[in-house]
Structures are given as C-alpha cells and as structure tokens.
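Lab channel / #folding
Pinned by the channel admin:
"Please post every new chain as: sequence first, then the structure tokens as a reply. Keep commentary short and put observations after the output so the thread stays searchable."

First post following the new format, from NK:
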Amino acid sequence: MKDKVAIVCGSSSGMGRAIAQEFLMRGAKVTLCARDEKKLFDTMQALTYMAVNEAKDKSVTMRIIAVPGDVCKPNDLKRVVEETVDAFGTVHILVNNAGGPKAGYFEELSDEDWYNTVNLTLMSAVRMIRLVSPYMKKQKWGRIINITSMSVKQPIDNLILSNSIRLAVVGLAKTLAIQWAKYGITINNIAPGPIRTERIEELANAKAEKEGISYEEAIKAWIKEVPMGRLGKVEEVAKLAAFLASEDASFITGATIQIDGGAIRFVL
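Reply from TO:
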C-alpha cells in the first residue's frame, strides 16, 4: 500500500481508527475524518507517535492529515476530499464507515428516524463515492470498501433500521462493481459481527435496559451467539480492509465478506 492515498471515514475510534492505523503502517497516505474535532486530532497525534516509535517511520508526519467532518453533511464530505487531493494529489482508497443506525423496533421508529438513517448510512456512501470516483476512473485504479454489518446477511432483532438501509449500500456496491470494473475499481463490503467497539457497548446497554438485565449479561448474550466464544477485535477488521485495499485483492469485487466468528448461520 506504499504511497496509496486513503480516506477513512469515522476514523477517530473503533474500526475506523484501526483501519487507518493499519493503512498507515503499510505505507499509505491517510486522511482521517470524523465529527469530533478534538478526538480526531488526538487520534492523528497518537497514530503519528505510534508509527514513528514502533515502525521507526519518520516520514509519517507527511502521510497523515485529519479533516473534521460529519458524513451526513454534503459540504463536509466535499471538504474532506478537496483537502485530501490538495495534500496528496489524488484518492486511491475510500473506506465508508459511519455510526450505526438507531436501535429499536418498527413501532418505536418515526419517519424522521428512517430519513436520518438513509442520510447517515446510504447517502453518506453515495456522496463519498461520487466525490472520489473521478480520481479513481482517471488513474484506472481504485478501492472502495463499505463497512456494513452482519445485519445485511442475518437480520438482528431490534435493529430494523440497520437491517433495511444497510442492504441498500450492498445493492449500490454490487451495481457499481459491475459497472466500474473496467476502470480497475473494486467495490466490496465488510460485514462485521460482534466486534468490541463503542457500538457494541451501546447495543449491549440498549439490550440490558430493554430486557431488564445487566450490561455484563447483555455482552455474554452477544458472545453466546458467536461459535468462537468471543467478541472480534477491531484489528482483525482492519487487516481484512487492508487486504481488500491491496493489489492482492484485485479480482475481488462486488463481494460482502463477513467477519463474525461464525455468528452468521446462513450458507451463502
């Protein structure tokens, strides 16, 4: 991944941060993007320090920038891409990663909840792909990776918004993968199962409140559904993303790859 330019959305924490770190350690130039400006710049500082000290890479300060932005706001996304191109000249890799949709059952959700999820989950990906694709087409090389959820393959009981709208991202990716293969652009989805992140803590707290159980019991209930008997690590997701972003994955496109410890029961 040396000298490839990557934009990683939602990269101030969790899977996004782990992916940005993995890309950086493999020699990529990385733009970090997230809403929380302080957290974002703290992350940039931490990743820079880590690369300088662990990888002995003194050039890392020239290979990482942070651009605060909300993926729900079109002008913010435009600025992220513009500042990336100003700094690095182009974009080779895009990782679409946004916070998970609101938990809840059908009867509890309003029209506003549905519209907000479309904007957060689907339109953020649509807009970012629209912004970076001209650079990828021009250079005849690109990697687009959408972080979705195991819910696109196996619906999760109280996540009807995720179950519904994330599937639209998969449909988008499959269609563009077919249309843009001639440009050397691959588009794939990563479908994480229970990964130890702030999102899983949020869902566990919601489950605990709903069912009148403790947070620890809710976490154990998640783990019980995983044949490997543990939650996944963000670093494991990051390594899969790095593979999909590499030349080694040049014949993989339009795929949705689960990383779930065996939690999804379906054959396909």
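NK: The domain at 5-194+233-259 is CATH 3.40.50.720 (Rossmann fold).
TO: also worth noting, The helical segments are 14-25, 37-54, 74-88, 111-139, 160-180, 198-211, 215-224, 234-244.
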